Amino acid sequence: MGSKTIVSLLFHVIIVSITLTDAQFCYTAGNFTANSTYAKNLDLVLLSLASNVTNNGGFYNTTIGLGNDTVYGLVFCMASASADFCFSCVNSAIQTLMAACPNQKEAISWGGNPVPCIVHYANRYFFGSLELSPTDAGYNTAILDPSFRVQFDQIWSGLGETVTRASTSSSRLKPEAETADLTSTKKMYIFMQCTPDVSPSNCRVCLQQSVDYYKSCCNGYQGGYTQKPNCVFRWDLYPYYNLFPQVTSPPPSPSPSPPFVISSPPPTNTTIRKGRLTSFYGFQFQLL
């Protein structure tokens, strides 16, 4: 029984409305063949990740197999996701990952439906390791209002303190979510989080590089994100992921999404996506 069949059996009672195309990366660490021992172990790893993540606070890793057939798997639901949202994101991420990387021994998916989650499996031990590549980044095609520029640059220069708070939090199962005033009526909404298996120092490196990468690729646009295997950084001009309960103003109404363009990535193992941001079930997401 192949991976797709096993996962479809696990999730057959759940109807998932996929409004986002999750971002995947297929590593070049080698391939496996259908019905091989590695394929069967991968099936078991993916089933284990999906079955155990919500019972373990949204973070879980596992290892199955021996020798060259060993598969290591990790899953993490971010942004304090509820059990239902976590399971939905992992379900979507696993299915799209299997479709995108059907026979690669290592692959990663950054799910986004309806909250961010990471699913990563490999034929090597990577738990706790700092992994800065590959990188997935995106931005809203709307240009930041020039009148906000001075205050925006001041806030951006202070993100190092946010990185420090996110990386030294007593519980990295909890995201760092902050607001900063651009004007008396407009705020920046900032979200950062690392996978709990990396050290505080490695978390800080990952987040700082994510912030720096966004500035180098997408500076001047009105919101966006950077995702790496160990961390996610996002900022926008409206609340999202239900992380900012103190904000009582409703999010903007959904608007049609234009076609997205994936630009030719300048660095290796990097994808940059652009497009408008739209909403789903009251939350804001990047449509890829």
Please describe what this structure looks like.
- With 288 residues, this protein is α+β, with helices and mostly antiparallel strands.
- Helices cover 27% and strands 26% of the residues.
- It has a seven-stranded mixed β-sheet with strand order 7-8-10-9-6-12-11, covered by helices on one side. A five-stranded antiparallel β-sheet has the order 1-4-5-3-2, with helices on one face.
- Strand 11 and strand 12 (270-275) form a beta hairpin.
- The chain is elongated and about 60 Å long.
- The model is unreliable at 3-21, 247-268 and 275-288 (pLDDT under 50).
Q: Which terms would index this structure?
A:
GNK2_sf; Gnk2-homologous domain-containing protein; 6 helices; 7-stranded mixed beta sheet; signal; disordered N terminus; repeat; 288 residues; 14 strands; 5-stranded antiparallel beta sheet; Killer Toxin P4, Chain A
Quick gist of this model?
With 288 residues, the protein is α+β, with helices and mostly antiparallel strands. The protein is 27% helix and 26% strand. A hairpin with a 7-residue loop joins strand 11 and strand 12.
